[in-house]
Amino acid sequence: MVSLRFSTFLLLSLRSFFTYAQDDASPEDTVNPTKSPNLAVKVSTSFPSSEIFGIKLVNGHPTQALLSFTNDEASPVNIAFVGGSLWGPDPKTNGATSRIVRNVTSTRYNVEIPAGEKESVSYSFATELHPQELRLQLTAVVANEAGTMYTLNAFNETVSVVEPDASLFDVQLIFLYLFLLAIFLGTLYFVYNTWITTLFPQKARAGKGGERAKRSSGGSKKVDPADQVAVVGADGPAVTSGAKAYDESWIPAQHLNRPEARRVKSGARPKSRGKPE
Fold first, then answer.
1. Which residues fall within 8 angstroms of residue 224, CB to CB, at 6 or more apart?
2. Residues 37-91: pLDDT tens digits?
3. pTM (2 decimals)?
């Protein structure tokens, strides 16, 4: 098992190195990428969700690829791994050569294809890159009946990396809009309380003075309008309640209790205070 993994990793590394070296080679020196000279197995790749205008890799969404294998060998073969990489122009050489921008996911299958049969496997990967055009290269590692590993170039074309389409019902966008709205309303409230309220001073309410007078009077009862009596004085007409034009709650009790006058009999004479003769 260890030797199988090591050999697979070595084959993928060599495949990447050979692809990098072939960028400067002439078309006559390039080997047919869909066939191996030592293995009669063909592979083709299609993208079911691709558009007419080209293959687009949407950031954050898995890209589905369908790899179709045709085994023309006299013995069965085994699909071991499928992996790939994204290539772009090298800024050090002003685009004259290519470099690996990102390696995509490698998936293990261990699917056997009988002699003369066809088999298809699904391969998916995701990207998180800036929108740009890159060259996608997919490589399949196939083993024959003797256990010898072969690499097959399954795909090698230009693709476009794009951002996902924005939706009004996106949960992340909804929370972002609510957060920005809360910040905006909080800013408006702060500006209103800090500067706008100082430009429009509030008037004193008239009801507060009446309530204060009622509390100072000890909560006296309301005066019946029938008991009010009009009084004309020097300062003009005034209204008094009944026979009392004042509030007795402010007068001490000893001043309210008037002494009663004593009655004197008419026939009785007062005793003389002088001395008798």
1. 241
2. 578 999 999 999 887 778 999 998 999 999 999 999 999 999 999 999 999 998 8
3. 0.52
